[in-house]
Specification:
The chain is built from four helices and eight strands. With 163 residues, it is an alpha+beta fold. It has one domain: Alpha-Beta Plaits. Strands 1, 2, 3, 4, 5 and 8 form a six-stranded antiparallel sheet that branches. The longest helix is centred in the middle third of the chain and has 14 residues. The relative contact order is 0.22.
Length: 163
């Protein structure tokens, strides 16, 4: 059975755009998985102590992987691309892949929370997500992604990436 999943992609180390595109290519090569939609690529102001701006975007995929196995596959991609274990919550990273939504599932496990617990607080997630899925309903908040973006109180800058 196929599942509809939204994944956030971010990078703020090295050639950020290249890292982003490599992650996309690796996700596209996962078995029983295909990319349905891709948002534009954005540049966003960093959170926390990091000085480097991020390249961000969101994709919609269709996959047969269950949530835990998909997370494992995404973590393998991060490791294969050179991501190290980050001690700081918002530390710099070569690649970051987060499952935002998985069908209408609600999961609250130690290593996997779906929907991602911070979707509604992050402009760098809501802007690209609303571009490709404005009418998708957040399963806990019962609001569309576009409604969440309109009521967002995040003043961090997010703009289209200019290479």
């Amino acid at each position: 059975m196929s599942h509809q999943v939204y994944i956030a992609i971010g990078s703020n180390l090295g050639n950020k755009k290249e890292n982003y595109l490599e992650a996309l290519a690796r996700i596209a090569k996962l078995p029983k998985t295909r990319i349905i939609k891709e948002s534009s690529v954005y540049e966003s102001e960093p959170l926390g102590d990091s000085k480097e701006w991020y390249v961000n975007g969101v994709i919609e995929i269709e996959t047969e992987f269950r949530p835990e196995m998909l997370l494992k596959k995404l973590k393998n991609i991060e490791r294969a691309m050179g991501r190290k274990k980050v001690r700081k919550r918002w530390g710099a990273r070569i690649i970051d892949l987060d499952i935002l939504l998985y069908d209408t599932a609600v999961l609250n496990k130690k290593n996997l929370k779906i929907p991602h617990p911070e979707i509604q607080t992050r402009k760098f997630v809501l802007v690209p997500l609303s571009e490709i899925a404005p009418q998708v309903i957040h399963p806990l908040l019962q609001a569309t992604i576009s409604e969440l973006l309109v009521t967002l109180k995040d003043d961090k800058r997010v703009s289209l990436f200019r290479s």
